Structures are given as C-alpha cells and as structure tokens.
Amino acid sequence: MQRQKHLIHEKVQLNDYFIDTLEKMLDPIPICFILIDSETRVIMINNQFAAFLGYPKEELLGKKVEEIDAVTRFPEVFLHKTPEIAWKHKFTNGHTAIVHRIPVLDEEKNIQYGFGMILFEDVDELHGVLKKNKILETKIDFYRKEIKKIRGAKYSLRNIAGTSEKIHNCKLLAMKVAHTRSTVLLLGASGTGKELFAHAIHNESDRSENPFIKVNCAAIPSELLEAELFGYEEGAYTGAKKGGKIGKFELAMGGSIFLDEIGDMPMSMQVKLLRVLQEKEIEKIGGNDVIPLDIRIIAATNKNLIQKVKDGSFREDLYYRLNVMSIEIPTLEERKEDIDDVVKVIIKKLCRTLGTLIHTISDDAMRALKDYKWPGNVRELENVLERAINLSDNTVIELEHLPEHIRKNISEKIRKECDEKEIKEFVNLKERIKILEKEAIREAMEITGNNKQKAAQLLGMSRSNFYEKLDKYNI
C-alpha cells in the first residue's frame, strides 16, 4: 500500500517499511489494533479495527482519533501519561467494547505514540468468556481442592496480608516456630486468621510435604471425638465400621494436626490429649497395640484459657503442655493500617471465585471500612466485600454497596465533623459587635469625607472615644 508522507507527523520516527511490516503482522490477527502519534493522528490501523469503526482503512490514516471517535479517551491518557487497561468504552458508532489505551513514552517521559486495542468487541462476548472461564476455573479448583485434601495445608505466610508491626511480628514468630518441633498454641478472636497461621506454620516446616489434618473440637459431638481422633478397631463397639477406622492422629503421621477450638474440648478428652502430648503415642479404641506418633500439634482457640483454668473447665496441666510456643493474633481493629492490603487480597480472591472484574474500591467506601470496628474481624470483612461485589454493576465498589450499618457509621462521623467545623467557625456576639462597630466607623468616615468630628457626631460618640476606636481598628 502506497502511503503518503504528509499522513505521518514529522516527529514520528517510524518509517514506511516498519509500518508496512506492522500491518503485515497485525492485519491477519482478528483483534483490533491502532497506533497513533503524539498528536493523536492515526499512523497505523489494522483492517479489523477499521471494519469495527465502519470506515475504509485509507480514510482513517492521518486523521486524529477525535475525528473518528468523538468520545475517545486518548487525549486524557496522553495528558496523564497513564495507561487505561480493560476499560469499558462506548464508541460514537454505538458499539460498546472493552479496550486498552497505552501511552508510549521516551526516555524523558515525553509522549511518542499511543497504542490501542480492543479486547472484546462487545460486552456479551466478555460475559461469554467470563462464563467459560468461570466453568474452567471451577473444574480446576475442584481438582486442586481434591489434591489439597490429600496433600494438606493450602496457605503460606504470603497469604497473610498486612505489614503492620503486630502482624509482622506474628509472621516472624510463626516462621521461627515452624522450624521447631514444639507444640504451637494460636490465640485470637474469631475470624482473625488462626487457621491461616496453622496452614502457614505447617507449610514453612520440614513437614510440609506430609499430611496436614484439621479437627474442629467444637463441631464434633463429645461422644464421637475420641473415635475421630484415636480411631477404633473392628468390633470395638456396637455400630463400629467393619475393618475399624484410622484416627486423625494416625492420619497426621509425619505431618501436623490442627486442633481448632481446643478450648471447647470436653474434660474427658483433655486427659487423653494430655497423655498424647506427654507420651507421643496412642491406642485405638478396642485395640491393644501402642502406636508411636511422629506429629506436630497446632492448637487454636478464641477462648481465654487462663480464665477457663481458673473456673475449672480446662485442665491446668494441659494448658501448660499446649502453651509451649503461643502466638497471639491481633484483631482487625488492632491493625487498622492493614485494611488496605487485606481488602485488596480479599477482592482479588473473591473476583477469582465469583468470576467478576472488580478492580478497586472508592475512597469513601474504603474510609467506611476503616472507620468500622469489625467485631467479626477478617471473616466479617470478607463477607461484606463479597456482598459488595455481588451488588456492584461496575468495576468499582462504592459506598452504596456496603451494608447500612457500615454506611451509617461513616455518615454519623462526617456529620459530627461538619458540626465541629461549624462550631469552630461560629463567630460569638462580642466579635460580631466589633465587626459591626468597625464597619459603622468606616461608613461614617466615608459619608463625611473623612471629617472625624462630623463622623463622631454622626455616630453619637464623643470625640475622644471616636479617636480611641480609630486607633483600635487602625482606621
């Protein structure tokens, strides 16, 4: 194709040969591409994009993109020198697409070119891809979970978001503890991430390739907990499974067992757990053989174990056996500075799970999250963000997508700040009298042509008092 020189701005350093090479490369590709110069003139556009815009390709070369698409955002991209990735854009021809706009800068950060492309030529196409991707991710996730059930722990210290001093110290301690064989006790309110730390400690240890077995001591009925932990031999009791059952302790051999909500463990089981910790061996229910154990016990609770020891609902000797290496995980309220990082991690995780394209959260919404107390900690925050993502029809979580009790919290704070500002700026009576007096003296002087005697008479003031006021107000 013959290209005339005047179509290309003189500052553009691309030659015809290079442009022709680009065209040969990009024309066969069924994706829309465009290249413009620093003044937004079209240098190259492939046939796919020209057809999408509804023009012959030759008519578009040399034109400014504003002439082709009146609502183009390339001028804003050039102004701010910031790329726009995966933006929803409605062209003047009525088509809606998902697009990239990328400024190309030289070494001195000056605009050289602009590169644009269309990812999806209509939103329905995007939804179709997302749907297929979600189905694929669901299948992959299923198989991944099945593998994880066999292998064990899923999370590492990298999955624990936050850089505050408190959470940083917890991570450091967890890393040190992971390389020992000592029992670990994780303390913290519900929803603070105790299970994440248990996973991370196992994954950081030399047991990471071996099983990680989880047991919720509060979820299993007390009469079944012993069989669940120790297992049983065939015929041990009425209803026992044929062939017996392997207990959780034995399943965790060579690895770690995570005893969650250990503060709710029945007293009868506390005695037997104490023996496991002391002797490192178990006996199945109905069995005679002693099975030596090579396991690491990680326990967790949201209860005050010291108080439970005092009131007699938790054994003191077991408490001291468990409390060899304890890690107290802070609440979200205690590490508010981490909320930005935690929110980003949760949004990314939820978008992957839900198949959505939420990219960010508005300043007002983030402020509301930071002002809230979070009694349910990270678990509650995740539930709130999942709700917000489901309600959002854009790529941004706004204040309106948050629950009313969180929005109400920030509304009351803003109202209080406004009230405080009004009180601070309120002018009291004494100050208002001074302002009025000063204005009256200036007005009297102006009416009398700066005749002080006449001005004083006009105001009904003595001459000496009038002179004092002039001096006071520096008139």
Properties at a glance:
alpha/beta, five-stranded parallel β-sheet, Rossmann fold, Helicase, Ruva Protein, domain 3, Beta-Lactamase, 4 domains, five-stranded antiparallel β-sheet
Percent helix, as a range, is 40-55%
N-end to C-end Cα span: 81 Å
Please state how the strands of the largest beta sheet are arranged side by side. Answer: 2-1-5-4-3
Give the CATH class of the largest domain.
Alpha Beta
What is the oligomeric state here?
single chain
How many alpha or pi helices?
Answer: 20
The tally of structural domains comes to 4
Descriptive report:
The chain has 475 residues and is an alpha/beta fold. It folds into four domains: 5-121, Beta-Lactamase; 157-328, 3-Layer(aba) Sandwich (Rossmann fold), CATH 3.40.50.300; 333-425, Helicase, Ruva Protein, domain 3 (Orthogonal Bundle), CATH 1.10.8.60; 429-472, Arc Repressor Mutant, subunit A (Orthogonal Bundle). The protein contains 20 helices and 16 strands. It has helices at 16-26, 47-53, 57-60, 65-68, 74-80, 123-151, 165-178, 194-204, 222-230, 248-251, 267-279, 305-310, 316-322, 339-354, 363-371, 377-391, 404-425, 429-447, 452-459, 463-472, and strands at residues 33-37, 42-45, 84-90, 96-105, 111-120, 184-187, 212-216, 231-232, 245-246, 256-260, 281-283, 290-292, 296-301, 325-328, 360-361, 396-397. The strands form five sheets. Strands 2-1-5-4-3 form a five-stranded antiparallel sheet. Helix 11 (267-279) packs across helix 13 (316-322) and helix 15 crosses helix 17 (404-425). The longest helix is centred in the first third of the chain and has 29 residues, at 123-151. The protein is flat.
